Amino acid sequence: MGKLRAEIQHFYSQPKQMRMLLLTNMAYAFALPVIELFIGAYIIRKSNDVSLVMVYQLAQGTGIPITFAINGFLLRRFPISRLYALGMIVSGVDMAVMMLFNDINMLGVAVIGFIMGLSYGFFWANRVFLALTTTTDYNRNYYYGLETFFFTIASIVMPLVAGYFIAATQKLGWLGGSLNSAYHILTALVILLTLIASYITGKGNFVNPPNARFLYFQFHRLWDKMLALAALKGVAQGFIIAAPVMLIMRLVGAEGSVGSIQSSGSLLSAIMLYLLGRMAKPEHRLKIFTVGLGLFVIGSAINMFRFDALGAIIFVVCLVFARPLLDLAYFPIQLGVIECVAAKEKRNQFAYIFSHEAGLYVGRLFGCLLFIFTARYAGEDTALRYALLAVAIVQFFSVFVARSILKDGEWCEASRVSPIASNALKEPAEL
Asked: Which residue has the higher pLDDT, 277 or 139?
């Protein structure tokens, strides 16, 4: 209990804006697993076409960079907290619209995916900027460790509860045995969580970026390397989101299995990540990044060799550890490079957030099209079995790009501002 009190005190020792951002993300963390996992399961159940999940991912990925650009202009007129809240609320509403569809077709999936991409665009564009301005390189490991802890705990609780609820509705006759009713209740819960998260956001007193140009096409060579790293991440991103639900629905069972398997190992992962975020230093990020990529390759290789229920389970468990490890290392690297290059080029920091999303989209586009064409012309089993490993191996080359970034950047003085002296972390006088 003494250690727990010490951790709570450490949390309250952080700047208020950082704490409010963490609390906002904690509330939304319990909505995201339901959106990510069960929209894919719903598409498969209604259409019996696995490749439509990748169409959804591609449409979603297309909506995100478009919204990043729109968001850049809207930030000149609207508070960032409202745009951030808008992204969260639209994601819940979009899920509700999807659940009203009786027939699933490619056009409908593409439209819903695009709108979800718009919501994620508002969410991620503002989330990255707020994380950038409310933290420094000194406390980013802690910030992302705690944030990832929230998201990992949510990935334990929500898939398990939601998956059991859907399975029990069918087996025990809840709600008249209607799976559609079960999905509607889950959607209502998601909307409630987004409203709670939006309310907390309004309490943060967050500051908008300066009203300045944010669209550029030429950058410092250090940022060019960061864009290459973003593209490599994007190649795997669509697969990482969609692959678990596709593999489990195909090789293991129904939605109940999706929830149960996704929760396996997540508790241990959450504890490990919080400790890493609390104790790890900036120089440890490359090692954490390498371990995360290695787990992705190992899980994909086992899935390829076995391609059965056990192989799918092992892959998902590896992914449960790999995804948060990658995020814990990647995001602090990204923010540090933004600070460094923005200071060198004297540009608006949001310009690099927008450019980074464009790099991610190039990777997502390649990854999604790879899966869709492989599934259409070589079969869905081939896509899930071999293309997944190919993507994991390609992404592993991110290790060498990240090493070059860290060596080339050497974290310039802009990212080494102490938390006490940082103007970004000063709280308003009335607080």
From this structure: 139
Is residue 318 within 8 Å of 292, Cβ to Cβ? no
CA separation for the pair 99, 93 (Å, rounded)? 10
Rounded to whole angstroms, how far apart are CA atoms 288 and 278?
14
Would you place residue 424 in the very low, low, confident or very high pLDDT band (cuts 50, 70, 90)? very low
Half-sphere exposure of 413 (CA within 13 A, CB side): 2
The alpha carbons of the chain give a radius of gyration, in whole angstroms, of 21
CA distances from 357 to 35, 78, 96, 238, 408 (A): 21, 21, 26, 14, 22
- pTM, rounded to two decimals: 0.75
Q: At what angle do helices 255-263 and 140-171 cross, to 10 degrees?
A: 150
Distance CA(402)–CA(386), nearest Å, equals 26
Q: If you average pLDDT over residues 317-346, what whole number do you get?
A: 86
pLDDT band at 394 (very low <50, low <70, confident <90, very high): confident
Is residue 112 within 8 Å of 97, Cβ to Cβ? yes
Contacts of 382 (CB under 8 A, 6+ apart): 374, 375
**430 vs 219, residue with greater confidence:** 219
CB 146 within 8 A of CB 25: no
Predicted local distance difference test score (pLDDT) of residue 10: 82
The class (CATH top level) of 11-203+230-419 is: mainly alpha
Amino acid 399: pLDDT = 92
CA-to-CA separations, 234 to 115, 131, 171, 256, 411, in angstroms, rounded: 19, 20, 39, 29, 24
Residue indicated by tokens 């999706």:
258
